[in-house]
Amino acid sequence: MRALTDRQEEIFRFILEHYRDHGAVPDYPSLQEAFGFTSANSVYQHLSALVKKNYLVKLDHGTYDLHQSRFSLLEEDEPGQGLPIRGRIAAGGMHEAVSADLGHLPVELVSWRSPRLFALQVMGDSMRDAGIRDGDYIILDQKEPSNGDIGAVLYNGETTLKRIFQWEDEIELRPENDAYKPIHIRPEEWEEVTVFGTYVGRAWREDGEWGLLFRP
Questions:
Q1: Residue 27, Cβ neighbours under 10 Å: how many?
Q2: Looking at residue 31, what is its pLDDT?
Q3: CB neighbours (10 Å) of residue 37?
Q4: How confident is the model at residue 110 (pLDDT cuts 50, 70, 90)?
Q5: Is 178 helix (H, G, I), strand (E, B) or coil?
Q6: For residues 130-149, average pLDDT
């Protein structure tokens, strides 16, 4: 599975800020100086990991660009807007990713900000028994999930919201609704799996009122 480590997250955030200011991914010397790496090889290893996890793409002559799926992260949110809603995700079978700017969860609901957090709107009821309903807004942290966490998964170009279990011989994407079957992924396919967010809470609107619940 391909989620960012804390160090990779720190480096990628630096790359985003540089991209906003200069329109390009920083070069090796800039990254080496910013993070105190003793060799260019350390920079290469981190950039290669970001390429492998579909955060960057490698161009000619050792230069890099953002992966096409990450350009939406360049949009800076105005202070006090709440969490950005980046699109929709299926809670059912696998579906093509739906990327869209759906605004923000209201500031009175989520008054704090974190660059690691964002929201997606749920389509489907496969996670119903975990309390996640069709039309809810799930709050995701861009961190690596622990075994058994619920995560937003990209696999073969399609996305789904499932509980994630990893063993030596397979990854299981498990629904929380008996009407749906688990998805089993063999080790030779693991490199095709990217977890781009770990579920930490949900928001919903009912009778004109917003509710918010964070995972214990």
A1: 13
A2: 94
A3: 17
A4: low
A5: coil
A6: 90
Helix (H) or strand (E) holding 209: strand 209-214
pLDDT at 93: 59
Q: Is 111 a catalytic residue?
A: no
Q: List the structure tokens of 179.
A: 């009407």
**Mean predicted confidence (pLDDT) in 69-75:** 72
Please list the helix, strand and coil fractions of the chain in percent, rounded to the nearest 5, in that order: 25, 35, 40
Determine the Cα–Cα distance for residues 164 and 194; give it in Å rounded to an integer.
12
Q: Please identify which of the residues 39, 52, 53, 162 carries the catalytic annotation.
A: 162
Q: Look-up: residue for tokens 């630096």?
A: 14
Q: What is the structure's pLDDT at 135?
A: 92
Q: Which of 58, 111, 126, 181 is catalytic?
A: 126
- Classify residue 9 by burial, with Cβ atoms within 10 Å: 0-12, 13-18, 19+: middle
Q: Does the annotation count 162 as an active-site position?
A: yes
Q: What mean pLDDT do residues 11-38 have? A: 90
Distance CA 166, CA 171 (A): 4
Amino acid at 200: V
Contact 174, 156 (CB under 8 A): no
Coil vs helix vs strand at 46:
helix
Closest CA to 66 of 22, 29, 102, 98: 22
Contacts of 169 (CB under 8 A, 6+ apart): 186, 187
Q: Which two tokens stand for residue 90?
A: 């299926």
Closest CA to 84 of 52, 123, 120, 49: 120
Residue type, 117: L
